[in-house]
């Protein structure tokens, strides 16, 4: 009798485990939605569409990018945080996810309602200045800025990563800057080229203006030289002690609702990893101006916590506010 009960118990456990595993093995069972809390056409949207196409091919299901811009990414992020945890709603977002935890006093969602799944790419910030600025490296720029207080730094908007990078640079070096926010990178770059503003932290895409002599690039926000621009000296290696650990970059990553079962999270991560580790995908990401940067779930979670610890004090001390 005892043996019979043990067999029945083991059979029940096996059936339960099989029932739980079945949805994971069959995932996805319907179209998958990737929410992007940015407007269509931006780099986050482009990256999401590249990922969506490859996942659709792998999963044999449509993977649809759903752009939900507004309120500094809050609208789209809130929608993802409140979605069912069945794996059919994903979020691809960027640096704003971290910054908003400090910038926005009453978020309509809890950041912990979203589980970091995978870092997808990184974008190191380059420090550009107008060609008329009499500085050719970081020490010369600092000396010039101290001799001419009120140097103007453009950004793509209040609370954006270029804004926060500029404030962090100013705080560490003790220079006095004037922040000039724009509605997007395009207008900011136009005015930098035209000389209406003097400096800007931006992506590698703006290097085209350096090649034509309209701008100068003085450094990059990476810790080590990078493959895309090996000749550029990292700002952290510029010889200025206060900048010895300075970094400036914008990450791009995928999240799922935290209610998503761990086994399903692992399944989705494995599929994302398989897609991202192909040469075809590396090349596609690289062409957007980003650097492929796949991280494990735990690695991405640790990275986000470190990023928040680094920039939260800057946001508070410099009294950075959203538009």
From TrEMBL:
Matches recorded under CDD domains: PBP2_Bug27
Signal peptide (residue range): 1-21
InterPro entries noted in UniProt: BUG (IPR005064), Bug_dom1 (IPR042100)
* Keyword Ion transport tagged: no
Per UniProt, which keywords does this protein have? Answer: Plasmid, Signal
Query: Which PANTHER family does the UniProt entry name for this protein?
Result: BLR1237 PROTEIN, TRICARBOXYLATE-BINDING PROTEIN
Q: Of which family is this protein a member?
A: Belongs to the UPF0065 (bug) family.
Q: What is this protein called?
A: Tripartite tricarboxylate transporter substrate binding protein
| Organism (species) | Comamonas antarctica
């Amino acid at each position: 009798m005892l043996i019979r009960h043990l067999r029945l118990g083991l059979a029940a456990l096996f059936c339960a485990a099989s029932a739980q595993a079945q949805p994971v093995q069959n995932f996805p069972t319907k179209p998958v939605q990737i929410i992007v809390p940015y407007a269509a056409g931006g780099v986050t949207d482009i990256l999401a569409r590249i990922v969506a196409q490859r996942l659709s091919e792998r999963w044999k299901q449509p993977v649809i990018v759903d752009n939900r811009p507004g309120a500094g990414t809050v609208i789209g992020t809130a929608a993802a945080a409140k979605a069912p945890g069945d794996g059919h709603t994903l979020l691809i977002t960027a640096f704003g996810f971290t910054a908003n935890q400090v910038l926005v006093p009453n978020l309509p969602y809890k950041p912990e309602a979203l589980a970091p799944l995978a870092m997808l790419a990184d974008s190191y910030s380059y420090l550009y200045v107008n060609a008329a600025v009499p500085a050719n490296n970081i020490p010369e720029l600092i000396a010039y800025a101290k001799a001419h207080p009120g140097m103007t730094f453009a950004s793509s908007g209040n609370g954006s990563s270029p804004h926060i990078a500029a404030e962090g640079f100013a705080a560490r070096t003790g220079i006095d800057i004037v922040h000039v926010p724009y509605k997007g990178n395009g207008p900011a770059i136009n005015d930098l080229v035209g000389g209406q503003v003097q400096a800007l932290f931006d992506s590698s895409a703006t290097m085209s203006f350096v090649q034509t002599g309209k701008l100068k690039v003085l450094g990059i926000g990476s810790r080590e030289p990078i493959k895309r621009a090996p000749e550029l000296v990292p700002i952290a290696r510029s010889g200025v002690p206060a900048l010895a650990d300075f970094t400036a970059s914008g990450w791009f990553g995928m999240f799922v609702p935290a209610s998503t079962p761990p086994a399903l999270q692992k399944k989705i991560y494995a599929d994302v990893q398989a897609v991202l580790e192909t040469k075809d995908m590396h090349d596609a990401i690289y062409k957007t101006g980003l650097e492929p940067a796949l991280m494990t779930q735990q690695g991405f979670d640790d990275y986000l916590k470190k990023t928040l610890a680094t920039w939260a004090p800057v946001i508070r001390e410099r009294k950075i506010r959203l538009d």
